[in-house]
Amino acid sequence: MLEKLKEEVFLANLELPKQGLIKYTWGNVSAVDRSQKLFIIKPSGVDYDAMTADDMVVCDFEGNVIEGKLNPSSDTPTHAVLYKHFEDIGGIVHTHSQWATAWAQAGLDVPAMGTTHADTFYGPVPCARFLTSEEVERGYEKETGHVIVNTFAEHKLDPLEVPGVLLHGHAPFTWGKTADEAVMNAVVLDEVCKMNFYTRQLNSYAEELPQYILDKHYLRKHGKDAYYGQK
Amino acid sequence: MLEKLKEEVFLANLELPKQGLIKYTWGNVSAVDRSQKLFIIKPSGVDYDAMTADDMVVCDFEGNVIEGKLNPSSDTPTHAVLYKHFEDIGGIVHTHSQWATAWAQAGLDVPAMGTTHADTFYGPVPCARFLTSEEVERGYEKETGHVIVNTFAEHKLDPLEVPGVLLHGHAPFTWGKTADEAVMNAVVLDEVCKMNFYTRQLNSYAEELPQYILDKHYLRKHGKDAYYGQK
Amino acid sequence: MLEKLKEEVFLANLELPKQGLIKYTWGNVSAVDRSQKLFIIKPSGVDYDAMTADDMVVCDFEGNVIEGKLNPSSDTPTHAVLYKHFEDIGGIVHTHSQWATAWAQAGLDVPAMGTTHADTFYGPVPCARFLTSEEVERGYEKETGHVIVNTFAEHKLDPLEVPGVLLHGHAPFTWGKTADEAVMNAVVLDEVCKMNFYTRQLNSYAEELPQYILDKHYLRKHGKDAYYGQK
Amino acid sequence: MLEKLKEEVFLANLELPKQGLIKYTWGNVSAVDRSQKLFIIKPSGVDYDAMTADDMVVCDFEGNVIEGKLNPSSDTPTHAVLYKHFEDIGGIVHTHSQWATAWAQAGLDVPAMGTTHADTFYGPVPCARFLTSEEVERGYEKETGHVIVNTFAEHKLDPLEVPGVLLHGHAPFTWGKTADEAVMNAVVLDEVCKMNFYTRQLNSYAEELPQYILDKHYLRKHGKDAYYGQK
């Protein structure tokens, strides 16, 4: 079942430790098959050395396991909610990568301070609020998804233009058209959080990038007038 | 004598440089055999390249060498006191890992600022006081153990729920049910100290994690209602 | 056409990830043939693993492609302007290396705080201003080149004595007599930005290097009285 | 001539990039033969990949080349002065390692804030003053040696108890009984500078280590009552 997508998800999970985004098993990647309304996700707490593509778990958009002998990632209900509500995304990544996590713990949006940011994120990356105790009781992982979705609705953000979020006191989620793109966006978000940290320490009055430069950099890589790369 | 445990302790010691927790020989791991009231510990100041499982030293809970041709780690009396008083722990790690050591030198408890912390430590990791000059004279390494034990008694902490401590002006000790778990806890403590450092620099008013989220994350991985992993 | 220079440019591009200056394809190196008024540059957005010397693109000083089946780096017009105006330089590097980018985002010149700086840069490395919205509209990459050239004219700087610049809100450009030297200057600039960051955090009153020590270190490595190395 | 010592110096130089203390050729190691009053030092500006033990240069205590086909390190006169005045040292290391260099640029002594420091340095590591312009003119590298020697005399420091120094605006020198020990001391100094940086940022009121703990840690590793290791 969905063998090709399982392989993609498996390989994308292996990218996380290679890119220095995770230690041990502190992360997970998934990818969706939109035609079948199913997604593939990493099993929970399995050593990366022992894991194979066959260990990947197939779930539906309610987070139910459809196929797989192992428990899916404990964050599966969050992925399910995001696939349901963000209808154009194809892959999702969750890590506790250090720099994005530091900003998440600080409860701060990541401002667009440079073109490294603007090449991938079309504006600040929002930090979503703490869940309430009622939400935690009702279903921590599922409500985490709802808080993300509501944050994007409130800020009127397009999830493909701002393909990531921080969760206050927790860590980042990123996404993209594919699992691979979601991983790359996780790398960019962590790098941008690092650079912005040092920028702010150097100069607490440092300005955000002017809107017309943000536009220029984002749009030279994305959308119909893009001219970056070989397309 | 205790050949299997020697191998475990040997391999766990090799993990320290692999995980970036130590330089040269600045660390030590031990593990206990509760039935015999003996523990195995690394020899003192031996190059990791030259060391073998056979070089591990067997000690009793008074810190006496029971078997072994080399001197045990100079921190052996600290390990002995911890095994005697923390009756459920199986392995102990001491390193001068950089981030935990920075917090130890700063004399600060490590606050629970995020879920990375909450997944392993059920609340702040305490920083124990400097030894007095009388304690240093009486027996530096043994009294270090007593200061740790007293710190946990005063804070009414369960050593398995908060499996680590900082020593003011010195560095961390961590422990766990096994030597391997103690190493993993040393990795987590250093990572958390790093993330919390950056969090505080970004936002000196950053809040600690709400108690109900701390509960949720710790208890989804530990105790009878845990649902993380494949158990 | 210019096969030897293509090979040099290809190898110099591969140095960027090796030296930790870039992630993915976020950088580019070029080198010039002054006799033909042509330069060779990396293609845009091509994976470093898949790239070959043959993929390098030949351009003239207006940024037109003279030979090559792939699109050149989107920053090609900046390189073209620099080769046209800085008549003694032989190679150019652009990266988003983290430390230099942090200073660029902070909008700060890099002061000469130590001899590591003085061995390569004969005085502060300037941070050029944001482009105006008119300049961005007129041609972002070409105008970036003009802003660099004007910054050097205003500060009366010799591009070979100060072989690099920061662009506010963006990242560094460095150059040198060859592509290899330009890469080495990119490494030095990033290292100096890192050291100066920590220096300033340690002591916000830290002094710049006295002029006579700056002279001594720069001139023992550069110019007719140099005595460093084997020349 | 002194083939065994050349091999030692060669290998100790190779340790510098392995330990992350230098980039390119920014460092040098030497070792002395006290009976012949000669020392061996790395040649100036030679690539580490191309260098062999045979390329090492033999010098006397005035810095004259006694044997060797290459120019010695440009810092040779500094080494010569140190061997002449610090009569018990056997090896010297100079690097621009990032953390020690940051403290040197900040012009600050490195305080003894923890036991990592106390295990190697018996008290603060001093930062020597800038050279005057007269000293630079008279002979920059030789006068650098004199400033180090005078700093130790003024502070009444034993060079084997405090085996290193920072030079304001420049970088560290370390030394030891052998070239290998001097390299290890360079690693410790950089690590301590890193830890102390983070300690100070966490808590600007952080105390230095009490004298009796400094004594305890230094003396358990050094001197007649040492009990660390296998001696």
Automatic annotation (TrEMBL), chains A, B, C, D:
Coiled coil: none annotated. Signal peptide: none annotated. Pathway: Carbohydrate degradation; L-arabinose degradation via L-ribulose; D-xylulose 5-phosphate from L-arabinose (bacterial route): step 3/3. It is an enzyme of class 5 (isomerase). Residues 7-197 form the Class II aldolase/adducin N-terminal domain. SMART domains: Aldolase_II. Its EC number is 5.1.3.4. Pfam families: Aldolase_II. It catalyses: L-ribulose 5-phosphate = D-xylulose 5-phosphate. The keyword Lipid metabolism does not apply. PANTHER family: FUCULOSE PHOSPHATE ALDOLASE (PTHR22789), L-RIBULOSE-5-PHOSPHATE 4-EPIMERASE SGBE (PTHR22789:SF8). This is L-ribulose-5-phosphate 4-epimerase.
